[in-house]
Design goal:
Layout lengths: L29 E5 L1 E5 L6 E11 L1 E2 L2 E2 L7 E10 L3 E7 L3 H9 L15 H4 L11 E5 L2 E5 L6 E3 L6 E4 L16 E2 L6 E7 L5 E7 L5 E8 L10 E3 L2 E6 L2 E3 L1 H5 L9 E3 L5 E7 L5 E7 L7 E6 L5 E7 L4 H9 L11 E8 L4 E9 L3 E7 L6 E6 L13 E6 L3 E6 L4 E3 L3 E4 L7 E9 L4 E8 L9 E4 L9 E6 L1
């Protein structure tokens, strides 16, 4: 397929990085399409389906969203059978998406977006569930997740939107995190939602392996914090409540977006909450130094009864401004994070030990393995120095024994979150999948790496029929 010319972006006095062309125009859907092999060869044992979700439309009727989190979600599906790969890509047709498609204009509020109406009308404007953050594959359906509301149910093959999914027990006003965790031993799914109020409520869920709510519980919180992810370590759940609080009145009445109403309050420190996974009741509360996180990495219950977890730790909330600027195509705010490991006593929530594992900017950790020898894959920049205005240009493998190995995608190429895939025919070998935007040719590709040999480069590159904008999270379902 001949590459199309990159779309023009709005002119600016500052130079625009190549990644900006990937989000300059709304993404184009495509039906099931066999993918051409650009280089290498598909592994014969790679059999299953990759799903990815992310914001694909950041403009409507001349109005640009105010934050990357507010783009309409679209899901990519790539099915591998050992010989070929077939992909399809489709927007999640939420009620808000359909309304705005019909009207041709922005009608809803978002996390960081206010609609182009008068200030007197804003407070009456509803919030759109953009279903753009992650996916959860269940035996009979795929869930498109967005933590401000209920999941959307999609067909596993066609990606047709089938409506909101209450998981057999949730209310329309409930929220459901974009980062549910499946217990590796029992198959049970753990999740949470944050219910706003004068003081927010942390609502906990345990679901069956098929995605039906079995048990719920609530924990009162102080103020309205920003919670995105949590830790599952065998029989414990751990929440780290960073010192971010929402100023509710400006957001409620449309005087500011929710994003702009968030306040960094480091004097409060970070609160650690340990929850029993069986009863969903809190066990212990502890305090720690202030930090902010979007994502946790590997976690496990150690032989001595302590809980060990990795976290991508930011010193403050500058990352929120960085992500806001992504939507404009111009990034000026630096926001670096490092991968840290914490060891806590689950009975007291006290920190027993802490260490920095990766002292360079990184994000989107994914893990293969269960115990202390598990390997973590993540995004990093091509060099240790963070380049101004750029998205990640490399993926990396962190082995607790051998350290960090980096696979740079090349200047102007931007890989998404790496998804590790176990090889059922060889437990000692794995693959890593990532979707890459090539800014030089304005095209998107699927790259397959040998997991243990990232530095050697991809063993197969597949061309997607349309540009897929940088996405947030994905999952793999083995055949």
């Amino acid at each position: 397929m001949a590459p199309t010319a990159p779309p023009k972006v709005q002119p600016s006095a500052k130079s625009t990085a190549l990644w900006a062309a990937a989000i300059a125009q709304p993404a184009a859907e495509f039906a099931a399409t066999p993918l051409a092999v650009l280089a290498g060869q598909l592994p014969v044992d790679l059999r299953g389906t990759l799903y990815r979700n992310g914001p694909a439309r950041l403009e409507r009727g001349g109005t640009r969203v105010g934050h990357w989190f507010d783009g309409d979600g679209a899901v990519l599906r790539v099915q591998f059978d050992g010989n070929t790969a077939v992909a399809n890509y489709r927007y999640v047709r939420s009620a808000g998406f359909v309304d705005e498609e019909d009207s041709g204009q922005c009608l809803y509020r978002g996390y960081g977006t206010l609609p182009p109406v008068s200030i007197w009308q804003r407070w009456q404007t509803q919030i759109k569930n953009v279903a753009n953050t992650s996916v959860l594959a269940l035996p009979d359906r795929l869930l498109a997740l967005w933590e401000g509301g209920l999941p959307h149910r999609l067909d596993l093959e066609t990606l047709e939107t089938l409506g909101l999914d209450d998981l057999g027990g949730l209310k329309p006003s409930d929220t459901f995190t974009a980062h549910p965790k499946r217990h590796p031993r029992t198959g049970k799914i753990f999740s949470f939602g944050t219910i706003p109020g004068g003081n927010a409520t942390l609502q906990l869920y345990r679901l069956s392996a098929a995605g039906a709510v079995e048990k719920t519980s609530t924990i009162p919180l102080s103020g309205i914090p920003l919670l995105h992810d949590f830790v599952l370590a065998d029989r414990y759940l751990v929440f780290c409540v960073s010192p971010v609080r929402l100023s509710p009145l400006p957001a409620l009445f449309g005087l500011s977006s929710f994003s702009d109403a968030l306040q960094w309050q480091p004097q409060q420190g970070t609160q650690i909450i340990v929850v029993d996974a069986e009863t969903l009741e809190p066990i212990a509360l502890g305090d720690a130094d202030p930090w902010f996180q979007w994502h946790f990495g590997h976690s496990y219950l150690d032989f001595d009864g302590s809980v060990v977890f990795d976290v991508v730790r930011y010193p403050d909330l500058a990352t929120n401004q960085f992500l806001k600027e992504v939507a404009s195509g111009q990034i000026t705010t630096p926001a670096d994070a490092q991968l840290w490991q914490y060891r806590i006593d689950p009975k007291t929530a006290k920190i027993l030990d802490q260490q920095c594992l990766i002292d360079r900017h990184c994000e989107f950790p994914t893990t293969i393995g269960q115990d202390e020898t598990a390997v973590t894959y993540l995004n990093v920049h091509r060099t240790e120095l963070t380049p101004a205005g750029e998205l990640f240009g490399a993926i990396a493998r962190f082995d607790p024994i051998t350290g960090l190995a980096v696979a740079a995608a090349g200047e102007g190429c931007y890989p998404s979150e790496p998804i590790p895939v176990a090889n059922p025919a060889n437990p000692q070998q794995s693959w890593v999948l990532t979707v890459v935007y090539d800014g030089h040719h304005h095209r998107s590709e699927v790259w397959v790496y040998q997991g243990e040999q990232l530095e050697a480069g991809p063993i197969c590159r597949l061309e997607l029929p349309e540009v897929v904008p940088p996405s947030f999270h994905g999952t793999w379902v083995a055949a």
